[in-house]
Design brief:
elongated; TIM Barrel; 9 helices; 2 domains; 26% strand; 22 strands; 6-stranded antiparallel sheet; 26% helix; alpha/beta; Immunoglobulin-like
Length: 470
Amino acid sequence: MKKKYTIYILLIAMFVAGMQRLNAQTKPIALNPVNPHYFIYHGKATVLITSGEHYGSVLNPDFDNVTYLNTLAANGLNLTRTFSGSYCEPPGAFNIAHNTLAPAPGKLLCPWARSNEPGYKNGGNKFDLTRWDENYFKRLHNFITQAQKHGIIVEFTFFCPFYDTLQWVLSPMNAINNVNSVGNIGTTDVYTLDKNGGLLAIQEKMVQKIVAELKGFDNVMYEICNEPYFGGVTLEWQQHIADIITNTEKALGVKNLITQNIANGYKKIEQPFAEVSVFNFHYAWPPITVALNYGLNKVIGDNETGFRGTSDSTYRMEGWRFILAGGGLYNNLDYSFTPGNEKGDFAYPANQPGGGGIAFRNQVSYLKHFIEGFTFINMSPDSTTITGGVPANAVTQTLSQPARQYAVYIYGGTQANLQLNLPKGNYALRWFNTLTGQYTTKQTIKHSGGNIALQSPPYSEDIALKIDAE
């Protein structure tokens, strides 16, 4: 009898454990409760790192987004960003060659269905903002599903400002492109509460529809608006859209993260929206961008790079410094992904506004591999451990859990003789080649405490160091 009772208890324990694992696997990506500067996904502490296409994966039907996701997955990358289709770009905008955000004439897919009336400025019929396009939502569902299979998080961006009339004349929200007599306004009034020409109700319904369509997915985050610091986007309108997302999800019984794009470069966030969990920057200045906002105890992200040339080293350094400054999300804008080049092998011209490519994606994957080699949720930015020995004109970045684990990055020079102030203890250290993803042989040291000199191997542009207490 006692034996049967024991088996019964074990079966119950196994069932409970199984249900806990299932719940962890179906709960949407969230802030990590141990350290909310990072994520938790499927029960695992997570940093989001990628080098992704220019946001046209869904709206551009000529782009094979399944091959694209397979390519990201092959590199072990776990994030992509996509626009809803309420905004698109003309060919050649911002000097981007073969832009995925610039669908061919007649090809734009967006949440709204085409009408029977010809006249859309980029080919085909105008849009009816009271009807939904089933083909769009079928493509959206498939994209999110395929991303989910690979463990890739999708940051879905609802809106984007119209930088000038070149983009506004292509938007379905413009009165010239729809049959609903709404949107007869200028570019700077589209995202306001009081001057929107009848568009606010249209925008609200679109957000509600998309949130409802994606309620079953655990790999989605919602970005209110790309670069809202341009084009007249008001804070009041952003808050309103955040409320629409939150209230719609509350009614549906789900909760996905909301992200907000704050600034280019850096800015201290003085009055954060309560609904927002991820604060994103473009062309970030690590470590300043992170340091200014680390006290918010939310994820700080760098979700667009560019406009600093096309060199791999520029964006590799940006990613390494950002993550080791305490950032939780890094998304390089990769211009090697184009329609017809979904494996990311397009040879973009030298005047492209950013970089990317096969070699760079490998390098980004090495950063992800490196940081995942730590218990990073126990680590925080460290400005005191390195006390000297940095090569001239070089920069360093350190993330640490004092006396337990240290991640150090050096950019510049060709060899370093670092001075580190470490507590007493036994340590294992390995240098990490950022260009090959290879560690040197482990070296163990017995340290009496205080400064210690560590000589790096020769390197080309940058190198990293992993130190663990033994």
